[in-house]
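Q: What structure does this chain adopt?
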Amino acid sequence: MYVYGQWGFANTSLRMVIPPKFSFAWPFSDRLARVNEWSIRGESRGCYIDKTGRVVLQMPENGSGAFSEGRAPVLINGKYGFIDKTGKIAILPQFDLVWGFSEGLAQVLVGDKVGFVNQEGQLAIVPQFDGASSFNDGLAAARTKGKWGYVDGTGKFVLPAQYDEAEDFSNQVAKVKLKGRWISIDRNGKPIS
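A:
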């Protein structure tokens, strides 16, 4: 909640549980929230807080993203990697861009191609796609040659790249745009009415 120029956190009953004292705040993710707090000198600096409002980790100098599955994206010397909840480098900065982890994999950009890295920092799917979403229900939407399809954890297309647009699977159903029309499909690519 934003009160008198500062951010704090309220519960679902709108009762303030962490007083407004931050210059900026992002939502909680993986039990931590990124916030900017005021230093003694009046400067704003980034850190992570727990649900009691206690600072548990200072943000690296160049900033970092939200934690997901125990890892947070970080930019160091122009390359992206990941830190863990101790603040130590978990995956060396080596990528042009990264996204958060979902189902044990995170999208990484190398040059102009997207692939996926596992939590140990190994490429699980070699960068080969023009775009990709995160894994949900065991599949990720991936784009190649201007069309979207769905790949499994090995990078193999299990639903061919034939869609104009593709949303993430949720509860075994995804919305796709095919021949100018939005439809819902199951994991086998069959339309659902």
